[in-house]
Each structure stands twice: as structure tokens, then as C-alpha cells.
Amino acid sequence: MIRSVQLVGYFAWFGVELLVRRPKTRPERAQWLHRFCSAALRGLGVRLTVEGSFPDRGAVISNHLSYVDIVVFAALRACVFCSKAEIEQWPVVGWMTTMAGTVYVARGRGGSALKAKGGMQAAADAGLPVVFFPEGTTTNGQEMLPFHSGLLAQAMAVKEPITAAHIAYSFDEDNGPGVSVADDVCFWGDAPMLKHIFRFLGLKGVHCTVRFAPGPIRFSRDGLHRKAAALEARAAVVALAR
Prior knowledge:
The protein has 9 helices and 7 strands; from the N terminus they run H-H-E-E-H-E-H-E-H-E-H-E-H-H-E-H. By secondary structure, it is of the alpha/beta class.
């Protein structure tokens, strides 16, 4: 209950700030999201461990487990997200990322690839890293899905470095029988989102670990076919899981 009130408070405070200040540039909006998510993560009681460094520019690709992933990455650094169009409809998170200038991509819709490339180039020009999740959806963390090659191909076309990252969750405290990271932290399948959020707010000792590769992915060759590049990119993220 206390965390729910805190989250509403953060949402109201930063929402009013957004309406009053109306940040116009991409860096200003990304900085707003960074401060918002930093405060929200503390309010949620999530302990964060980071191994490696968030790159200053280029693309960051990661596995995807929950809406919390977006809060975590934004809390670490001012950045821009490139996400599937459905996230725009997510409660709270969708509003945050939209206001922060997220580039939404609808699969199979004409112009999405060009829009993604343009968004990534604009972020690069503004000196901001772009975060996206090539699995295209969230999982329970038991297995990493194949990577979609579309966004990856656009990131490669911008000719910015692409850095692998991996995110994982665990519990530092006992949350009782029947509670698991796979079902109560990870958000996947057909789970109702609002119900999941309230369940998450009741968890104790949630610990998030983010690992960044020491440098950009070195693809086997220039001009690599995007399907082959997706396989190599996935291998780079898998290598960070342990």
C-alpha cells in the first residue's frame, strides 16, 4: 500500500513538472525520464547492481523480462527507447516513454523501418544512446527468444556502435510460498498488467542485476546479412547471462 501511494506521488510530481516545463528537446525529455525512473526505482524498493558501463552513445540491446526493464534502463542513464507500438498503451510506463520521445514501431506497417532509423539517427545526433529489446516481447527468463532483425538492421544502418546488455531479477528476501521471479517479477504471456503491477508492489527484496558488455559487438564482417547479425547479437547477450 505504501509503495502504491509513493508511486502515485512520483507520477503526480513528475507529471506536473512535465506539464509545467514542457521539455522540447530530445535530451531534455530523456533527462526528465531518467530522473523520474531513478526516483520510482527507489520508491519501488528495487536494489540495483550494475556490472560494466552504460555506453554514452549507440544502441544498447538487451533481453526483455518486464515493464520494469524500461524503468531500470532509464534510471541508469538518460536514453531513448525504440519499442513495439503496444507499449504506448501500457499504463504509466507507456505514458512515460511516450513523453520521453520513444520511437514506436508497428510490425508489418509501412514506414516503420524508416521511422526507426530516423529516430535512432536523431538520438545519435543528440548524443543519446538508444535502448531496444530484439526479442520483441517479454519472457519469464527461462529461455531467450530468437532476436528479430528489423530494428537491429536499422541500428546497423545508422553505423553507431551496438552494445549487448543483460537484465535479471532475483529476491534478497523470502516472499512466501508460490511467489517466483518468473511469475511475479517477469511480465509475460497473457497476465493482466494492472493486477501484475499491484502484485509487484507487494514484493520484498527485489534485486535487479544489469550487465553491460565491455565493448560494442564485433560482428564477424561488415555488410553481414541482418538474419546472421541477429544470431550474433543474441549470442552476445546470452554470453552475459550467468
